[in-house]
Amino acid sequence: MILGRVVGFVWATRKDERLHAGKLLVVEPHGWYDPPQELGHLVAVDTLDAGLGDDVVVCMGAPARWRLGSVNLPVEAAVMAVVDRVEWA
Amino acid sequence: MQLGRVVGALWGARRATGLDRQKLLKIQLEGGGIVVAVDGLSAGPGDRVLVAHGSRVRDLTVGETVATKDVVIAIVDDLAEGA
Predict the structure, then answer these.
(1) What is the pTM (predicted TM-score) of this model?
(2) Hey, where are the domains in chain A?
(3) Which residue, B16, B43, B72, B80, has fewest beta-carbon neighbours within 10 Å?
């Protein structure tokens, strides 16, 4: 899972029809352990109504599709939580 | 899923069988990096697109027999950025 900040929203009319599950957020990661490579940004599907500037936890892969209720969604990343507070040890 | 811009198209007469009849786009990812993705939506040069990576997304969009892991799944109309 990835901890990141919402820095934008994406609108698209021409898209895969199964991408209607939620809003598309642009997330800038600031902490992650999977995937191990650095990402400048990622786009995640959000059903929790996160806003601009919110910190969110994003999950990649199959669990992201489970989160959205179907394994048959062409989705790679979903917002699992909107973060209230983070403590770094 | 990552945002990028279509910067070109690729043609090759000799391709692996899994890439027959697939339209290949060269995409400059935002934040750096180039990826060649299969286009399922007829995007064109200059379009801002959403690229997904992975075999499951590939299976669901362009098909299990296509030899790629990167697929264009949306053409971006608008992008709001802030914070």
Answers:
(1) 0.84
(2) 2-82
(3) B16
The answer to whether residues A41 and B2 touch, using CB atoms and an 8 Å cutoff, is yes
Q: Alpha-carbon distance B10 to B33, whole Å? A: 17
Contacts of B83 in chain A (CB under 8 A): 5-7, 52-53
Residue A19's pLDDT is what?
A: 85
Query: Do the Cβ atoms of B76 and A12 come within 8 Å?
Result: yes
Residue B44 included in any domain: yes
Chain A hits for B40, CB-CB cut-off 8 Å, are 16
What ipTM goes with this model?
0.78
Mention every residue, 6+ apart, whose C-beta is less than 8 A from residue A89.
none
CATH code where residue B32 lies: 2.40.50.220
Do the Cβ atoms of B52 and A53 come within 8 Å?
no
Parent domain of B23: 2-75
